[in-house]
């Protein structure tokens, strides 16, 4: 009887070990500085978001967050650096929707984003807005689509380059609405927007932040936002889904870690990041950058990554998008 009771106690103790270990791991982490790898150049809106979250984590985890900018190859250089790092929670990746596009756009990546990265937390959504030059006669998406169908290929669309979110937004519209737009790729958002402002092209899908001042001055006209519903920052502009059911494009950013990073570490980081996103000052800062905080669990972030990877794979294959 004593032996049986002892075996029961031992079994219960062993069953509790993973939970005890997980709690202990969360309590001791971190004990040294954490590196946050950002695949964008310093100074941009994405880099600013990464630094805001880094500052919050530093203050609340009690260790410095060292932001390391490693731009290049549409964030693939930064991702590879994190994938090759030790899965101990001391190297994190500031990632975005581009990672889900790259999975199909780049044919010879040395990593698989879904397989090799552990989702930690989503951060922010950036809605895009479909904007046209004032010389374009159409005032609504319905009018635009009708004109585009009646005049295939006559409307030109600028983007930041082949495979950019703006480009794929247009290809998604083409796929879902059956319209033909003449794609004009540029080397970056600034020249793509500049030629729209000069009337060299008719339409582009721009971030709400980059287009805001031009919309207010009347230099550009908004037809729709690409989020599933109307944006809080542009409530008078309809959502594309009101005209093309199911259409949704959102640029987002989040934090990830190398696969096999301990669950206790991921849970601790997720908890602190969600606390940051609930903070009124942080939400105001993110709103100034044109974004909306999107708190959630690591599992929810992982599902979004998988869903977007599948969606953009279909669009890229449909349109035959290739890097140039």
Layout of strands and helices, then pairs:
Elements: H1 2-28, E1 34-38, H2 45-61, E2 65-69, H3 76-83, E3 91-96, H4 98-105, H5 113-116, E4 117-132, H6 141-150, E5 156-159, H7 165-177, E6 182-185, H8 189-197, E7 203-207, H9 208-217, E8 221-225, E9 250-258, H10 263-278, H11 280-288, E10 292-293, H12 298-319
Parallel strand pairs: 1-2, 1-3, 5-6, 5-7
Antiparallel strand pairs: 3-9, 4-7, 4-8, 4-9, 4-10
Describe this structure in words.
The protein is of the alpha/beta class. It has 2 domains: 166 residues, Bordetella uptake gene, domain 1 (D-Maltodextrin-Binding Protein, domain 2, 3-Layer(aba) Sandwich); 116 residues, Periplasmic binding protein-like II (D-Maltodextrin-Binding Protein, domain 2, 3-Layer(aba) Sandwich), CATH 3.40.190.10. It is built from 12 helices and 10 strands. Strands 1, 2, 3, 4, 5, 6, 7, 8, 9 and 10 form a 10-stranded mixed sheet that branches. Strand 1, helix 2 and strand 2 form a beta-alpha-beta unit. Helix 7 packs across helix 12. It starts with a helix and ends in a 5-residue tail after the last helix.
Per the CATH scheme, the topology name of the largest domain is D-Maltodextrin-Binding Protein, domain 2
Radius of gyration, Cα only, in angstroms?
23 Å
Annotated CATH homologous superfamily of the largest domain: Bordetella uptake gene, domain 1
Q: What is the general shape? A: globular
Give the ordered list of helices and strands.
HEHEHEHHEHEHEHEHEEHHEH
Any idea how many domains?
2
The CATH architecture term of the largest domain is 3-Layer(aba) Sandwich
């Amino acid at each position: 009887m004593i032996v049986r009771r002892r075996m029961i106690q031992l079994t219960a103790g062993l069953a509790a070990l993973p939970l005890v270990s997980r709690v202990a791991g969360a309590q001791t982490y971190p004990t040294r500085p954490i590196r946050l790898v950002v695949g964008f150049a310093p100074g941009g809106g994405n880099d600013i978001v990464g630094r805001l979250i880094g500052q919050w984590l530093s203050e609340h985890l009690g260790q410095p967050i060292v932001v390391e900018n490693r731009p290049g190859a549409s964030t693939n250089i930064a991702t590879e650096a994190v994938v090759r790092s030790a899965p101990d929670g001391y190297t994190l990746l500031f990632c975005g929707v581009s990672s889900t596009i790259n999975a199909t756009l780049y044919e010879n990546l040395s990593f698989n984003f879904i397989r090799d990265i552990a989702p930690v937390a989503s951060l922010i959504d950036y809605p895009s807005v479909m904007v046209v030059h004032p010389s374009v006669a159409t005032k609504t998406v319905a009018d635009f689509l009708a004109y585009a169908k009646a005049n295939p290929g006559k409307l030109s669309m600028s983007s930041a380059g082949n495979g950019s979110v703006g480009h794929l937004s247009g290809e998604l519209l083409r796929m879902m609405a059956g319209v033909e737009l003449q794609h004009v790729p540029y080397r970056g958002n600034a020249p793509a927007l500049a030629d729209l402002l000069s009337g060299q092209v008719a339409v582009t899908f721009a971030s709400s932040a980059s287009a805001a001042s031009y919309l207010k001055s009347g230099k550009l006209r908004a037809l729709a936002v690409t989020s599933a519903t109307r944006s809080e920052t542009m409530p008078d502009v309809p959502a594309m889904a009101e005209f093309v059911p199911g259409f949704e494009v959102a640029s987002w950013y989040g934090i990830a870690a190398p696969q096999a990073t301990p669950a206790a570490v991921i849970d601790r980081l997720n908890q602190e990041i969600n606390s940051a996103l609930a903070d009124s000052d942080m939400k105001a800062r993110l709103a100034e950058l044109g974004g909306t905080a999107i708190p959630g669990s690591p599992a929810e972030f992982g599902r979004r990554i998988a869903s977007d990877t599948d969606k953009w794979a279909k669009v890229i294959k449909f349109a035959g998008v290739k890097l140039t």
